[in-house]
User: Which sequence fits this backbone?
């Protein structure tokens, strides 16, 4: 039996083992998925373990999506442009870093019915997860991407990074957090990449935007997937906007990782059901 792991630190409750192991069972793969909480001083050793014959592949989560990059033999072009690796593939004895977050985001957005081509998008938060989102939006042909953040230095860095690495021409705006409301009124798509609204946090009952800024017809995507309907998504629904939850992104990025490791497509419905059970959520 081969092993797949997810590494991070500290690694709290993760739905990934349940999602992956449900897929492996359905696919009759002789593999198991484990969560490894790896302190920084053990990171290089964990990556080296992946080279062993008993390892099929590895996922990477915070805070190591950037830190693993110099430890790998090769970085996929998209992952390098995004500046983060969340999936490591073994290929002819080499460790290759990929990013499946961008795919997971865009696949789930399109499955919900939103094509961002030609659209003005507002991305809330510049803590790191916005890089895959912004890359995916640029690749899909968004007309303009406004990045909103509280930290001026991070906001500047995120905007410069996107301008330098976007796979297609796209307008990039830097929006101070206090001006995010004005940008929201001009956007056809709003994506929350902040942890605001996440269960078991001080901001669980909060929203990153005032409800009055959400208009009928605008797409509102929340990367937060627990609870299934965040305060932001509830506000969007009540405003007649088009809310899109983040759980499907988690599943689709896992599907992309499994395909990279095995060359086979994993079962979405089984993995989504496993995610809901693991998180104690109900449709």
Assistant:
């Amino acid at each position: 039996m081969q092993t797949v792991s997810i590494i991070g630190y500290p690694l709290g409750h993760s739905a990934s083992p349940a999602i992956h192991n449900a897929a492996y069972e359905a696919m009759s793969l002789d593999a198991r998925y484990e969560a490894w909480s790896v302190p920084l001083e053990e990171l290089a050793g964990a990556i080296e373990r992946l080279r062993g014959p008993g390892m099929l592949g590895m996922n990477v989560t915070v805070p190591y999506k950037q830190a693993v990059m110099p430890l790998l033999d090769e970085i996929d072009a998209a992952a390098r442009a995004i500046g983060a690796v969340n999936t490591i593939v073994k290929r002819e004895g080499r460790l290759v870093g990929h990013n499946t977050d961008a795919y997971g985001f865009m696949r789930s957005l399109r499955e919900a019915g939103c094509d961002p081509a030609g659209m003005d998008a507002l991305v809330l938060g510049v803590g790191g997860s916005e890089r895959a989102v912004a890359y995916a939006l640029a690749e899909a042909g968004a007309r303009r991407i406004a990045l909103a953040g509280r930290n001026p230095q991070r906001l500047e860095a995120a905007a410069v990074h996107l301008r330098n690495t976007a796979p297609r021409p796209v307008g990039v705006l830097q929006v101070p957090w206090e001006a995010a409301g004005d940008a929201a009124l001009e956007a056809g798509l709003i994506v929350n990449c902040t942890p605001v609204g996440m269960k078991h946090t001080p901001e669980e009952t909060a929203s990153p935007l005032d409800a009055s800024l959400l208009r009928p017809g605008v797409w509102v995507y929340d990367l937060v997937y627990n609870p299934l309907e965040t305060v932001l998504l509830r506000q969007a629904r009540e405003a007649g906007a088009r809310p899109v939850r983040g759980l499907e992104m988690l599943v689709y990025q896992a599907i992309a990782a499994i395909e990279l490791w095995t060359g086979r497509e994993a079962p979405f419905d089984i993995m989504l059901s496993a995610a809901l059970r693991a998180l104690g959520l109900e449709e």
